[in-house]
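Incident log, support desk, overnight shift.

02:14 A customer reports that sequence design results differ from what the structure should imply. Their input is reproduced verbatim below. On-call engineer (initials T.W.) acknowledged and began investigating.
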């Protein structure tokens, strides 16, 4: 496959269109990918003709360890689906043909996302796409509701390629450019290149802009069905990480790439019965269902934080007066709260501001839907809305401030086990435990900086 700096035709295609492209020699390589535990795409590039002839309908095999490693792809103990004891066998990777997409920066390249099945054909319960698909189904089965979500995320861009990262960080911009319409040339060129590539890939962009922190960019996507929104998000991250080096930059979705900089992943949520929104009240405010959903979010999401804040670094974003929440508060158009009620009329919806940009979007949206379902099903009532500065709000519980504390709450949560299932809680608890162990045992730069000469 030829990688080019020029834009080539992109966007979603059908299986029939793929066959035509392969026959005409316009599609040369098909990347069959799954989202891993960490929200990254992993997989293989297949020759296009072989893919169409042999894999299009049935898929391929891959080692199950793809869903049982840490971020460094190390096979580690604690995962039931794959281990040294089980011999690290295969799972089946089955393409979802609704996700076929031409890659505008790769001439002849096509991407397709896949579902993961066990050898007997049953869905793998802990695979991120399946976790979300289950919560979408339960929302409909239990409550007769559907959801739409819009994802809004931030990432930070630094000058240079991966060879000098992450030790020599020089941001793409050095000052606050939030909402700036006049931007330094390098920033403007980068934002335009990313915007063009994402649009050419068929992603439903709403807006792209520089953000407040040095080198920070925000991308907002239009509302859509939850699984499609998550699929679009992992494709977006893959594109940004792939294209940024061609502009001689490096992009990171770390929640806190440097001290005092935070990258978030906000979830904008609406719920519907048939085509009617159920969160707004007729005379303004929130309906009874809307209030119950808020109650579920502020009560249950803090028990599921390893799905929204999956690394030790994630919690360094949660600082007072940072626009990232520190308490399980909700409020009306209040950006200091974990849950913000925003919008007007039938567009009134909930913005969940807890997740970091390092979160897996499938698990994040699944946790949000599960918490709402819990609140509605149990007819919970929310605490009083927080007005003013939620960082100083008396009586509002603090969110867990570290991954180990969040993990303890996750493991002990009866609600999480009920909503997600013991397999899912166990699998992602194992992933979080690995992150805790690494953070507790590895010597860091800050330890050397503060102790090398003075110890």
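02:41 Re-run completed on a clean worker. Output:
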């Amino acid at each position: 496959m030829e990688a080019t700096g020029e834009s080539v035709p992109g966007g979603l295609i059908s299986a029939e269109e793929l066959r035509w492209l392969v026959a005409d020699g316009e599609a040369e390589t098909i990347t069959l990918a799954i989202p891993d535990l960490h929200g990254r795409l992993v997989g293989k590039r297949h020759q296009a003709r072989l893919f169409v002839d042999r894999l299009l309908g049935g898929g391929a095999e891959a080692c199950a360890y793809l869903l049982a490693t840490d971020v460094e792809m190390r096979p580690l103990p604690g995962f039931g689906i794959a281990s040294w004891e089980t011999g690290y066998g295969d799972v089946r990777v089955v393409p979802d043909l609704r996700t076929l997409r031409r890659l505008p920066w790769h001439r002849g390249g096509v991407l397709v996302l896949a579902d993961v099945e066990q050898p007997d054909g049953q869905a793998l319960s802990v695979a991120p796409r399946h976790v979300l698909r289950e919560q979408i189904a339960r929302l409909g089965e239990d409550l007769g509701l559907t959801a739409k979500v819009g994802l809004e995320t931030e990432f930070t861009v630094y000058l240079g390629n991966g060879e000098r990262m992450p030790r020599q960080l020089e941001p793409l911009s050095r000052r606050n450019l939030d909402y700036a319409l006049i931007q330094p040339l390098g920033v403007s060129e980068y934002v335009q290149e990313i915007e063009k590539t994402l649009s050419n890939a068929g992603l439903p962009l709403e807006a792209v802009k520089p953000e407040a922190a040095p080198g920070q960019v925000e991308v907002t996507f239009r509302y859509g069905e939850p699984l499609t929104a998550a699929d679009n998000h992992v494709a977006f991250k893959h594109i940004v990480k792939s294209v940024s080096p061609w502009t001689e930059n490096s992009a990171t979705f770390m929640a806190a790439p440097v001290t005092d900089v935070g990258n978030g992943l906000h979830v904008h949520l609406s719920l519907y019965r048939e085509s009617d929104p159920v969160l707004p009240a007729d005379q303004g405010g929130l309906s009874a269902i809307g209030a119950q959903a808020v109650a579920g979010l502020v009560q249950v999401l803090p028990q599921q934080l390893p799905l929204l804040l999956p690394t030790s670094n994630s919690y360094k974003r949660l600082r007072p007066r940072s626009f990232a929440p520190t308490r399980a508060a909700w409020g009306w158009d209040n950006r200091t709260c974990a849950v913000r009620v925003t919008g007007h009329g039938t567009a009134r919806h909930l913005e969940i501001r807890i997740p970091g940009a390092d979160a897996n979007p499938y698990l994040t949206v699944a946790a949000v839907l599960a918490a709402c379902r819990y609140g509605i099903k149990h007819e919970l009532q929310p605490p009083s809305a927080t007005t003013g500065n939620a960082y100083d709000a008396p009586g509002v519980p603090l969110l867990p401030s570290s991954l180990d504390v969040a993990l303890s709450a996750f493991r002990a949560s009866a609600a999480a086990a009920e909503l997600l299932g013991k397999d899912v809680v166990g699998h992602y608890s194992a992933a979080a435990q690995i992150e805790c162990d690494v953070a507790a045992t590895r010597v860091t730069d800050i330890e050397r900086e503060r102790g090398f000469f003075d110890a």
